[in-house]
Design a protein that fits this description.
By secondary structure, chain A is α/β, with parallel strands linked by helices. Chain A is 42% helix and 20% strand. Chain A has a 7-stranded mixed sheet with strand order 3-2-4-5-7-6-12, with helices on both faces. Chain A has a 5-stranded mixed sheet with strand order 9-11-10-13-14, with helices on both faces. In chain B, helix 1 (2-17) crosses helix 4 (67-76). Classes of the chains: A alpha/beta, B alpha/beta.
Chain lengths: 325, 265
Amino acid sequence: MTTAELETAAPTWAQRYSVSSREVYRRVLAELAATDPRLFCVDSDMGGLEDIFGAPLPQQYVNVGIAEANLMSVSAGLADTGFLPYANTIAGFASARACEQVKVDIAGNNLPVRIVVTHSGVSAGPYGPTHHCLDDIAIMRTMPNMTVVVPSDAAETEYVIRSTVDLPGPLYVRLGRGATPLVNTGPYEFVLGRARWLRAGDDVTIVATGAHPVHMALRAAEILARRGIGARVLNMHTVKPIDRAALVRAADETAGIVTVEDHVLVGGLGAAVCEVVAEERPCPVRRIGLPDAYFDYVADERDLLVHAGVSPERIAEAALAVGGW
Amino acid sequence: MSTEAAAYRVRERVLKMGTGAHGTHIGGSLSCADVLTLLFTEVLRLRPEDPRWDGRDRFILSKGHASAALYGVLVERGYLAETELATYTRKGSRLAGHPLRRLPGVEFPSGSLGHGLSLGAGVALGLRRTGRDSRVFVLLGDGELQEGSVWEAAMFAGTQRLDNLVAIVDRNGLQITGPTTGLEPLAERWRTFGWHAVEVDGHDLAALRSVFGDLPTGKPVVVIANTVKGKGVPLFEGKKKSHSVQLTPRLYQRAVAGLKSTRPS
């Protein structure tokens, strides 16, 4: 699936079609690396990267093995010699296991390392809680210099990777594991730090980040539309730096904001939105996300989210509460 | 002899920094003073007037608590003014107890143990992949080797055969609570991780000169420098209490007198 194909895809077709952000990321990175010798793929035994990079681009690939602390500091060292390293691991291993290496060596030195993670949220589904990652947005956005981006689908992932090659500082890109619905169709210029309007509406605003949350936000807007309520849907792909202007506008022009994320409510998108509106334009906010608890059962990603209270129906209910309807 | 004299001056500076309100890590600074001085005066390819010169050798102080020794050496090479040392750990100073930013001559901030060897391995790999012939030297404490990330880095550098990477272990044998245990057989451990391991008296400048002047090739090299914590100041030599000390005026006078008594002729 190329960008051109995505741009000409009809929305109805696109919503039925699912593409893996992880696969698109890998292909786009390999394509960019083939013509830009600064790009360097740092693998930590993820599987698959060695075929894409190791064989055709051996000078721009290294596998550190199952050693995430080393992954981060080696990437920092490579960046210091002029490379643009893409450090690949699972979200929880990047944000929690190797947290200090990211904080001290990468963010602390403002080095242009791109930490691209998979298995975020509950996208590892039945693999269980050790492979889920519900707190990485909170962890990463506390680090000065760090940019935090959560693409909402494969198309946006491609735009993110292509447009951030020359970002001077560190970047955290939060991807899931499996295929997710395409929500970004048609021509689209990705602008880092600027929320994308997916749907216009002046009654209430739904702000979402990540694949399923954004898709669910659109479905919730349809539910609300059937009740005559116009929901504005913002895809907040950049959680840090967050689009303050879009949030102020939402507070001014609509009854309030519902946030949606596949992340705990502590410190995530909802918290970041509250930080902005509490200071700039206090307004009603309801946050939809994962509870302050560990999962002790497994299921597919979507089922886990719905079970935990992240669903189009719950988003719509929250929107009704925000507006007092 | 000039390196010997320089190492003596570095020790004097360490003691002076120890008089600040927060003291300093005297024991571990004095134990690595000879190695550090030799590296900066005779081994590393540097241009102090152009600290980020691309052709420089890289030095990473992984045992960041020895910052006083590093600052003392940076003064020796003109990266820092001698007068600035008086600001050590004082309000507003850039001279922190652990190097907190990239001062001229400081490649990476450090202090959290177990980071330096991975950083050095990444730099060494990057230098090699871009065809640059600079070398990377990383100074670790022996207690620091208890950090698991050191061995992640050791395994990686050995596997990649990064022969432009040199680790130096300041083997002073003491950590805060007492003897540094659990590391033997140390040289053999590094060898099984794919490294050359060389042991040397870390206070014998002639021996150190000979080791660093003829490092083996083909693999990364670890130089295990057998040292004495607090070396040069009898009051502190081999004492675990020398780890972090704030020198009162009286203690400072005693320490300086002790240092003078061990001064090389």
